[in-house]
Amino acid sequence: MGHDDLDKDTKSDSLKETQILSKLATLETNSILVGRFKVLSLQGCGRFGCVYKAKDLQLDSDVAIKVLHQHLVSDTSLRNFKNEILTLRQLSHPNIVRVHEYYESDDCHFITMDWIEGDSLNDWLEKHHPLSADLIDSLVEQLIQALSVTESKGINHKDLKPENILIDEQQQLYIADFGIATAIGEKASSVIAGTPHYSPPEYLESGKVSKSIDIYAFGLILHELITGKAPYKAQTQEQLIQEKYQQQKLNLDSKYSKYNAVIGACTSPLDTARPESVAQVKELISENLKPESANKTSLKALFGLVIIAIAGIAGYFIYSSKTEEGAGKLVATAQSETKSLTILPFVTEGTSAEPWLTNGLPIFVSNELSGSPKLRIIGFERSKETLDLLGYKQPLDDAKLKVIAELTQSSYLLQTNIIAIGPTEFQVDVNLIQVVGSGLQSDSVYSFQSKKDAIAQKFNQVPQMVSNRLGLKTIEDIETLPQGISLKTLSEIEFLLGKGDLSKAKAELKGLLKATPSYARGWLQLGQIEAAEGNILSAEPALQKALEFSRENSLVKSMAQAELQLLSEDIDGAINTYQEVLKQLPNNHETRFSLAQLFIEQQSFEEAERELNTIVKSDENHPQAWYELAKVSIWQGNTQEAVDNYLVKALVTAKKLKDKQLEGDVLNAFGVAYHRLGQLDDALDYYQQGLVFRKAVKDARGVVTSLSNLAAVYAVKGDYEKAEASLLNALEENKSRNDAVKQADLFNELGVIAEEQGFYQKALDHFRASLSIRMKLDDDWLKAESLNNVAYIFFLLSDEEQATIYWEQARAYYQKVDDPVGVIRVDENMAQLDLQKGHWQKAYQSYQAALKKSEELNLLEEAIVAKAYLAKIAFLQSNFESPLQELETIKDELKDRQDVRGQVEFSLWLAEWSLLIGDYERSDAVLKELEPLMVQENNRSQQLIYQTYQARLELYRGQDSGIPQEISLDNITAKAGLEHLIYLFEYAVLSNDTDANKNMVFNRADILFKQYDLDLHKFYHLRKLILSGFYFAQHNDIEQLEQTLNRTLLLNRGVGTYWRSYQVDRLQSIYYKTNNNTAEAQESSQQAVAKITELLQQLPEQQRQHFISLQGRYFKNDNMMEQLYDK
User: Which is nearest to 493 in space by CA: 636, 670, 361, 618?
Assistant: First the structure.
């Protein structure tokens, strides 16, 4: 790939650069960026950064990376830069260097792009000029194609020049750095002016960026392709500006004279005299390439330039004559294909803008015209919102009309002007404006004079007139309103509905329907209002009236039928109704969008995606469809597709419409997508950007959601302080909304944050606050979730009774709402209780059933939990090999999913199990791998377990470092506390410390251990008794040994097969030997040796040695070790 224009010998007053850049830090060859890109060579440095050739180690392919100059980097510029990169990723064309992605590594910010093997056009021209006419034509065509694509996306290069154009050996061109100047923002443009030769004079003078900036550069590049040089001789920027305004007369060789007019038009000193679009440039080229017009080209082009200049100075296009001839042309061009029509807000002059007139009538016209199968209507509500977002005020000039047509993808616009011509008299003109090429053609549909109160009734004819003018026929022939209905009254109702004043609209409708009960659309509207207010008993009869009075196959009848089906929760029926409507009205996007929403509600995501794609196919700037497509894609698991495609297009649409609300929603959705992809820094960045936009438009609901999302990322990153602060801010923001559901959600999230940190009482308080709110709501699933959360905290606090009560209630609610996932989670939680109490068989059956159901439902997380606990049960029952393999697989799966908490939990299991079977190396490696995650997770209970396993590893290796420090067990899970206490008992038995120190440690642990519910933690109780037995044996305390042994034997029988039972047999042998019962001692010893031997057969040699060596440290005055070594 080529490089930016920065010559080694550039001087500060030259026209190459207007400012010297300081010496730039460059990357070392063979360095690796973000663990993926290996730097191969520096290609060059320029205005915005340095370009390197690099190897993508993941894809094994060459890429170009552009590293941004450090002085261009700031929080604001980076935020803008990332947004623009999303837009640039849309540019996929053979003649454009494709931008891949933005990355950040330490203080290095860079983007990756296609690697092009070739030269810059600047260097290539020096070697190959002059060029043949055919080659110039080919290069021009390639440039035009690339610029057409970028213009259609609303992207300007702003720095187009031969140095930024690459060419390969096949003479294919590639424009590089598209949009980079825009992406970098003001910081770059204000510091470095760039190469001025290819910039128009108005830009050099004032920094004004006209839409023809790239067209101007194209004209100069075309000149350079032909002549091999730029047309200017100036030595300073002031002289250059003067030359540009003087516009030197072109004197091209005769074989290139066909480009005279093109270059002249494109490089005109007045931006209003240049072609307005690439399409006009292409048209100009085509005209001048026609052989029969070759001799007329100069005069014709000159005349064209004059016309363009005049049009530019005047600043508007002149409508064609509003005559019957014009009307005839419109009808004549009406074809069978679908047409699209935007209903513009009415223009009123000299009269007060009464809502029924400015809002109600346009809505009426929109509704009436929506019954045509060959017409796509962009109704008044959307057109008004578009004008408001763009800041456009009526009346609209041609340029703004064309923008509206482009944004709505409309071929026609309906514009109505109402002008006061006297105290009570008004002139009304209804015009149909057609977009023809790059211009507009206007035709009068209806023109009349009327009193204000009579305007509405006359408008009853407008929908049919428009339909006739377009050569269309509606499903139900448009007829006059029922006798006695005032269109003014209907318009007032439409206005009230539009602004959400349902109570006033309902009152007006009831009065209207009382006088004219046969008005079907009125009954439909009344039914919809009653349903929206939750008055189902009133909504149903109104909708039945709409069915009764509407005609067969009418849109009103279908909509009333669908509303009734939705009220009865017959989603399938409503879907069928909408589909029948769309068979007759395939271009009714409002109905299609509603259908997509129903598919989403049913989680029929493929069907929803199909409907939404149908919408954007004909309306690529639809304000919601791309956004909804992105959400559907994320829900389907195609998150990367959402990031690379749908969200990019949604963001572009939001920017085009200047819709800050939508932009905030899309940025938040980017955050959701990156969150799911595990790219937490990107997720955080986009959530924060979305929050800024949502605050700016005072979207309280969106602000609460963004703060909640930010909290989720902070929590995963282990920054619990920020997570909690975000949620508390969200709670405060939510107060003004009086949203009980969200309030409960936020308390629930605060509970999760507290639980993850090990603040269990605090978590319990938050979960109970959430439960208290949810029990008053009509949502059984939310009740189930809160009951499950409260139960789990009681479980962690070792309150078996409360945990069981709440879990049983949670299961009942999950079953009530038919949520198998919730039931599985509760069953898995309650199985933990059974396992802790030593009810292995019951726990095993519960986890087996959970695993089977999880796999049937494709529930990955629930399946992982079931597999892990089944492995634990197998390990406890003396099966060492397969559980460790299962746990390794689970750990890797969680790592791929970037589930930090899960990785920590099950990696700690793996470290412990490896340690217990003598695999000290693996245990050490797992603990070291865990270290950064422990810092990130910041859970006090898990950190205590981690520290305990580290200390136990040192103890087993004989490297214990002195008496353990006293640790507070407040706000620590029972498991973490008991693990720590078991280690203290091990220290008292296995360490080389003094007897006095070991006695002190044992007594401290013994006191603390009694504080726990030992019936709920039988395995810890059994381990404590076994260790106590060896402690008393070492101290020859036969009485305590006997008491401990009796309790141990009783408890061991209750838990069934247990891999540590060999230690119980050994303690029996020691006890019998001290009582001179040689036969019993020998039998118990043989049983212990047999069990150990069976365990050792599963272990490699080194682990066997570690395992045997450790047994010798429990007790030294029996012959156990001799028997083991004999074996």
Answer: 361
> Cα 579 vs. chain centroid, distance in angstroms?
30
Average pLDDT, the chain: 83
Give yes or no: residues 1083 and 1123 share one domain: yes
SS3 953: helix
Q: What is the dihedral of CA 554, 558, 559, 564, to 10 degrees?
A: 140
Which residues have C-beta within 8 Å of that of residue 44, sequence separation ≥ 6?
2, 3, 4, 6, 50, 51
Q: Which of 745, 780, 798, 793 is nearest to 978 (CA)?
A: 798
Non-local CB neighbours of 5 within 8 Å, separated by 6+ positions = 16, 17, 46, 47, 122, 161, 163, 164, 195
CA-wise closest residue to 986 among 916, 904, 925:
916
Domain region containing 1027: 1017-1127
Structural domain includes residue 516: no
What's the angle, vertex CA 562, arms to CA 561 and CA 563, rounded to 5? 90
**Cβ neighbourhood burial of 10 (10 Å; 0-12, 13-18, 19+):** middle
DSSP state of 319: P
CB of 112 within 8 A of CB of 37?
yes
Peptide linkage before 395 cis (omega within 30 of 0) = yes
Is pLDDT at 406 greater than 60 in this prediction? yes
| 333 & 275 share domain | no
From 224, 40, 10, select the one nearest 123 (Cα to Cα).
224
> 1022's torsion region: left (phi>0), alpha (psi -120 to 50) or beta?
alpha
Note if the pTM is more than 0.85: no
pLDDT value, residue 83: 66
- 300 pLDDT more than 50: no
CA–CA distance, 585 with 590 (Å, rounded to integer): 11
**Catalytic pick among 119, 159, 177, 271:** 159
| Residue 958 CB neighbours (<10 A) | 12
Chain center to CA of 139: 40
Position 1105: which residue type?
Q
CATH code at 333?
3.40.50.10070
Residue 79 confidence (pLDDT) = 65
How many structural domains does the chain have? 4
273 shares a domain with 401? no
Annotated active-site residue 739? The verdict is: no
Estimate to the nearest angstrom the gap between the alpha carbon of 533 and the chain centroid: 33
Asked which of 445, 476, 507 is the last residue of a domain, the reply is 476
With respect to residue 877, please indicate whether it lies within any of the assigned structural domains.
no
- DSSP state, 476? S
Q: Which residue has better confidence, 649 or 453?
A: 649
Burial grade of 536 (CB within 10 A; 0-12, 13-18, 19 or more) = exposed
Would you state the pLDDT for residue 328?
38
| Ranges assigned E (strand) in 785-933 | none
- The reply to whether 552 falls in a domain is no
β-pairing, 173-175 vs 61-68, is unpaired
Residue 68: closest CA among 27, 36, 15, 37: 27
Q: Which residue has the tokens 């730029």?
A: 230
CB 1123 within 8 A of CB 1065: no
Q: Which of these, 1037, 1022, 965, 957, lies nearest to 990 by C-alpha position?
A: 957
- pLDDT, one tens digit per residue, over 166-211 is 999 889 999 987 656 555 554 444 333 446 788 888 888 767 778 8
User: How do residues 499-556 score in pLDDT, each as one tens digit?
Assistant: 788 889 999 899 889 988 988 889 999 999 998 888 889 999 999 999 998 888 788 8
Question: Would you call 994 exposed, middle or buried from its count of C-beta atoms within 10 A (0-12, 13-18, 19+)?
Answer: exposed
Nearest partner of 549 among 574, 523, 525, 527, judged by Cα? 523
Spacing of C-alpha 9 from chain mean position: 47
